[in-house]
Write a structure and sequence with these properties.
Structural class: mainly alpha
Number of strands: 4
Helix content: over 70%
Largest sheet: 2 strands, antiparallel
Strand content: under 5%
Strand order of the largest sheet: 1-4
Distance between the termini: 5 Å
Radius of gyration: 20 Å
Number of helices: 15
């Protein structure tokens, strides 16, 4: 019996139940919320959170954090726009923007792995650096202001706003991201190295793992995720701006922690992060439909971050461990 109960205590199961609960709740209090088309296309509004949170999972599993993702989104966006208005093919501009994002992540990872400075401090400095570069590019191209750089080709705009087989492209992006990063983290040697670095970096180093490269590559993946998110936002709004993603840091980090990734490192899953991202996105969508402001929504998300950290590291953790131990001793009674 205990063996059958144990899967029900998995954090991802709790998140799925919570997701169903908030969908039903908003469906009751907000007319039109339960419309299937509205729910499907609402993913366009928060796909960038999922696409940035999933790679961020690698960083937090190593015991680090990356608060520069929002500024990398803006840098990716404005780089794409500036290159395009200067005659570069939009798809080539997109590739260059992703390379710039990888380079930003590489810089964060190099400093974290080769110094004793805390990742929070390093990426906080990176946040100001990358946002400053984005502002310089924006000002030099006269792209400052609310509109930014617009007039992109319709083929590029359709990347975020189109659909395949009647399903929004954003959902396909999320599925592909879950499969690629999930496989990379949970089914490869590199993924095991990421977990080992988060559990004990000294032990990992003595075991022959290249801990510096593991850290650097984790931040590069985070930078790549932020770059992809910035491009998706640019396509969605058909506008390149240096401030796109400026408010993304809180929901992205909340999605990873709420998804079950330990802030101390060594634990986490891509599926948990993806489900938590959907929870945050659906909640944002529901609160907006309920006429709450973005500032009020931020308060709710901040409370969710605190709640998830407390719950994962106190009562829930003890309950799950207790039932797991009983299940192992009883041998699946």
């Amino acid at each position: 019996m205990l063996q059958r109960i144990k899967p029900l205590l998995v954090w991802e199961t709790f998140l799925i139940l919570f997701l169903i609960f908030i969908v039903l709740l908003f469906g009751l209090i907000t007319p039109g919320f339960m419309d299937l088309n509205n729910l499907l296309y609402s993913t366009n509004d928060f796909a960038y959170i999922v696409l940035a949170a999933i790679p961020m999972t690698f960083v937090i599993i190593t015991g680090g954090i990356d608060v520069s993702v929002g500024s990398i989104m803006g840098l990716s966006s404005i780089t794409t726009g500036v290159l395009w208005i200067n005659g570069v093919n939009i798809w080539l501009a997109l590739i260059i923007a992703l390379l710039v994002s990888l380079l930003a992540g590489f810089l964060n990872g190099m400093i974290v792995s080769h110094t004793t400075v805390q990742p929070l401090v390093v990426t906080l400095g990176g946040m100001f650096l990358f946002s400053g570069i984005a502002l310089v590019l924006s000002g030099g191209s006269s792209a400052s202001g609310y509109e930014g750089i617009s007039g992109f080709p319709s083929s590029f705009v359709e990347v975020a706003n189109g659909q395949v087989f009647g399903i929004p492209n954003s959902i396909w992006f999320l599925l592909v991201s879950i499969i690629i990063f999930g496989t990379h983290l949970h089914l490869t040697r590199y993924g095991r190295n990421v977990f080992l670095v988060g559990i004990n970096i000294k032990t990992a180093r003595f075991s022959g793992i290249s801990t510096k490269w593991t850290l650097i590559s984790a931040y590069m993946l985070s930078g790549l995720g932020a770059g992809i998110s910035g491009i998706i936002l640019t396509s969605y709004f058909s506008s390149a701006r240096s401030d796109l993603g400026a408010d993304a840091v809180l929901p992205v980090i909340t999605a990873v922690v709420l998804g079950g990734t330990s802030i101390f490192g060594g634990k986490g899953s891509i599926l948990g992060t993806a489900i938590a991202s959907l929870i945050i996105g659906i909640m944002q969508y529901g609160l907006q439909m309920a006429s709450m402001t973005s500032q009020e929504t931020s308060v709710v998300i901040g409370c969710m971050l605190i709640f998830s950290v407390l719950l994962r590291n106190t009562r829930w953790q003890r309950i799950y461990q207790h039932v797991s131990n009983l299940s192992d001793k009883k041998g699946g009674i």
